[in-house]
């Protein structure tokens, strides 16, 4: 069993850290808002510390799942950050959805301190975190860091794969979000059109839902989209953060994302209608009459 | 066993009519280009006639699968069209992907002649037609026409469903094409981005291909898209015809199809690069450097 | 002085025909709704007839300004259409904004009847028609027809130019509308952004309105756009008709109109908000929060 | 006469500083690449210093015209930055096209040091800088700083206006760029369409160039666009920098820029075709067949 630190007990991190306990690891946690850490300890036992640095001191592995690039820099590189105390040969795993640049930056800083680094954003959402069946997309500059992290990550993942050097986990997650953006807009246009045409969306999906138009989103979201229900799922504000990361990386790579860029603007319409916390499938609302 | 006429022995209609024979029906065919009708008769036996009218004379059911609205009007309503000879109580089934307006126009004309009408566009492509596992989306103003056609259609369909009054089959097919347009553009952007980021597309699909970004297109087309292979599948020129139908119907319905309209223009880029016969997934080519 | 027939006394045609009278021509008019023809005769004198054919019988020139392609076909080619009575060597001028195809169709029909044809859509709006300062974009298969029409057109035009064979007037008008679509969307985004940024739009226009962002629309519409006033100008429903013509012609030509196609969909949002009769600059309304 | 420092003698800054000399001011310059500073002194006389700090020491006004946000921070706030030496009551004017955030950041830093600040991006391009007829869009938290800067700016500006608090100059410049993006795409689509339709672009512009489609870009760029000449003007890479600033600010403001975002992606196509230094009107090239 390993000694693992977990930094960031939010919607995703909290249950992930819980699965580490269930798998028998020794877990030390940190959360900025102390109450969350206390609640976690009340549920799962083990220990919490008051800084990322303190939580990571004797850890073999440190997992982080915070908000964005700046948060990652703060908890990793800041004066009380995990790299200030992690021991030689330990491995830092970042589950935050962040930029590929910050992944490379952290990998370099970690390497300089003889620490391994894996960027490891996840998909599967809150339900996947709670059920311990996340998909984890990894990048690492040396395979041994990935191999060290993999059995620990297995506590909460159904699928965990190394896709390339550091940053590759993040760029893979970006591919995921890019595919979703166009797909959801197409699905929104299809469903809104169907409704104006007087069709029953359930019937339509029953007939087209196995063929060339089929998608996870159609299978899992068409009914709620047709009912304009969005009080669940992956929030528009998270999607916006992720798409901003995609668009910046695309600029760096010379990639074109015309529809992703457009859908990102369409999400601003959703925000303007109060949809910050709505599921990403709420794109369909902008196709309704005012 | 029924007496069935089949009008239009193209890529789709030819094998569909063949399945009617296999199912034991008495089949009379018509094809504008006589050679194709002769070849079909050489393979499947039965009879061909020289006009749609002659082929339909004593048929219980007449199936058509021609090109576009004008073709449909010609073979159904023209001087030698099927409606000029079809008997009372027979049913006309149109498998062409056409407009909802032409479906309603035909339904009215058929009804006035005491003939049933079902608009019944299909999906599943050439492979689906050959294997007899098409999906058939039906609209009909009276359910009895649909019920009469259903067992015959079963000869070449895996799924056949009535979705509403006449035109509803066509609008359902439109929903299918609309969903595909946005989805394929998102997938194209995702794959082209992945390649610029130095990722292995097979690996990426292996890891994201079951989650929220998953789609039939990702499962079946990502590898060929990554290899820029398009010499198969559903041709861009057919897709353009279908999207034009969708956009016209959307205008009528007051539906908005911003990304569908944009992707329709992007397909013009593909045409300009010589892609008339390429599979619809060739959208990705426009994201490459010139 | 010439004998001129004018078919279609709408918002544009009425004042245009009036200018023909002022210029001293002998004018016979036809309008489908007889009351409008009576009102016109009450104001300008001269004669009205009850069919296009009757109005055109002895005319040297016949001008038409009706609604769309179908209307053009009806008044020109229908059983009571102008071509049924026009005399040899007379010239038919179509001021309707219509397709290039209908222009070529009419030119062929006219030529077969030894009649000249000029497609001659206009810009300048109601104000331009009333002031007699329209811009007229002409296409003609023979220059002599244009030369015959030019001095008559001069009665209500500031600018009248032959741009190519028949259809060229219409395609030039399309270029005009295409340019406007992208321009107005850019201007809308700019002004809505300025307002959210707390800027005074008048001041912004005062400073940027002479440089690289300058346009007729900025000069003439920025203030009303900032005030969300649209009760004047060129109506959204006309613009939609024109853009549909542009998009169809682009398909024929292999031209790409990505932003034009997108803006056309955005206008559907405006229609959905009740903007059928609003000025085209009402595109800005869709950038507001709901 | 004032003592003025000028930081950044690039394409824009060099001629601007020259006009200060012509207007009789005492000018001290700094340029990172010393050769450019030497060449400037050889042409205009006066003095150069080796750091921004040294150049600004006794200046009444300090003008900067560097590249982007980071450059602005470096020359203003860095250890050798101008704020480290500027005297009480002096005014700092930033002519760089940068973000509104950096303007507010600088304004706060300057105010804390009892120095005035004006963000003052320009338009008019290299030609405008050389002729001394730029348009200058200003933001300032106190009007007196603007009033102090205005007569000096007059040396190279035709128009100089205060548009609001600090950042307002930058947001006004953003409005300018946003308007241009949509406008140029519309113009590109119009011209490319015209050419495919066989029209003569000069003739088309002659007839539509005064009406509702008219723009500075049409008047000044249509001919070169038609000829696909782009070896002059405002470079695509600058436009991309500016649009990135606009898109970030729009996110902050909740503004939607759908077409601006799309055109920004289209410029990536132009970059991929080698167009980094081409004039922004090169958007039209992506509408050609490959
Ligand atoms: N929610 C989802 O469905 C999915 C989320 N993700 C990604 O996972 C990450 C976490 O998401 P989620 O758990 O939903 O977010 P939450 O907002 O629920 O949790 C964020 C966590 O990060 C901590 N944190 C944020 N900033 C800092 C900081 N500067 N210093 C210290 N701690 C900080 C928060 O602490 P505090 O409690 O003090 O605020 C909290 O513990 C994000 O990158 C998100 O994009 C990925 C897939 C799905
Ligand atoms: N191919 C595909 O993957 C799919 C196609 N479809 C739809 O099915 C329909 C048929 O497609 P497909 O079979 O591929 O097309 P083909 O071009 O292979 O066949 C078209 C058939 O229609 C006939 N036809 C066309 N116009 C006329 C006319 N005016 N009068 C008489 N006969 C006419 C043709 O006759 P002739 O032999 O003389 O040319 C031919 O038999 C289309 O609407 C298409 O959109 C739907 C799903 C998938
Ligand atoms: N060019 C144009 O048509 C227009 C440009 N602008 C804007 O004006 C600004 C300047 O443009 P332009 O003059 O064309 O650009 P140039 O590249 O010609 O000049 C940039 C200047 O900034 C200096 N510089 C850049 N970064 C730094 C740094 N970190 N430290 C010190 N000096 C630095 C450069 O020094 P060095 O010589 O050492 O590289 C050079 O003097 C930009 O913000 C641009 O967007 C606005 C309107 C029109």
Write a concise synopsis of the structure shown.
Four copies of one chain form a homotetramer. Helices cover 51% and strands 13% of the residues of chain A.
Helix content estimate of chain A: 40-55%
Oligomer: homotetramer
Radius of gyration of chain A: 20 Å
Q: Assign an overall shape of chain A.
A: elongated
What's the helix-strand series of chain A? EHEHEHEHEHEEHEHEHHHHH
Just name the CATH architecture of the largest domain in chain A: 3-Layer(aba) Sandwich
Active site (chains A, B, C, D): 173
InterPro entries (chains A, B, C, D): 3-OH-isobutyrate_DH-rel_CS, 6-PGluconate_DH-like_C_sf, 6PGD_dom2, 6PGDH_NADP-bd, HIBADH-like_NADP-bd, HIBADH-related, NAD(P)-bd_dom_sf
Organism (chains A, B, C, D): Ilumatobacter fluminis
Keywords (chains A, B, C, D): NAD, Oxidoreductase
Give the secondary structure arrangement, pairings included.
The structure is a homotetramer of 290-residue chains.
Chain A: E1 3-7, H1 13-22, E2 26-30, H2 34-44, E3 47-48, H3 52-56, E4 61-64, H4 69-77, E5 91-94, H5 100-112, E6 116-119, E7 122-123, H6 125-131, E8 134-140, H7 143-153, E9 157-162, H8 168-196, H9 201-208, H10 216-226, H11 236-253, H12 258-272
Parallel strand pairs in A: 1-2, 1-4, 2-3, 4-5, 5-6, 8-9
Antiparallel strand pairs in A: 6-8, 7-8
Helix pairs in contact in A: 1-6, 8-10, 8-11, 8-12, 11-12
Describe the structure.
Four copies of one chain form a homotetramer. Chain A is 51% helix and 13% strand. With 290 residues, chain A is α/β, with parallel strands linked by helices. The first copy, chain A, has two domains: 3-165, Rossmann fold, CATH 3.40.50; 171-287, N-(1-d-carboxylethyl)-l-norvaline Dehydrogenase, domain 2. In chain A, strands 1, 2, 3, 4, 5, 6, 7, 8 and 9 form a nine-stranded mixed β-sheet that branches. The model of chain A has no long low-confidence stretch (mean pLDDT 98). Chains in contact: A-B, A-C, A-D, B-C, B-D, C-D. At the C-D interface, strand 9, helix 8, helix 9, helix 10 and helix 11 of C face helix 8, helix 9, helix 10, helix 11 and helix 12 of D. One NADPH dihydro-nicotinamide-adenine-dinucleotide phosphate (NDP) is lined by residues 8-13, 31-33, 36, 65-67, 71, 74-75, 96-97, 122-123, 125-126, 234, 238 of chain A. The site of one NADPH dihydro-nicotinamide-adenine-dinucleotide phosphate has 24 residues of chain A, from helix 4, strand 7 and helix 6.
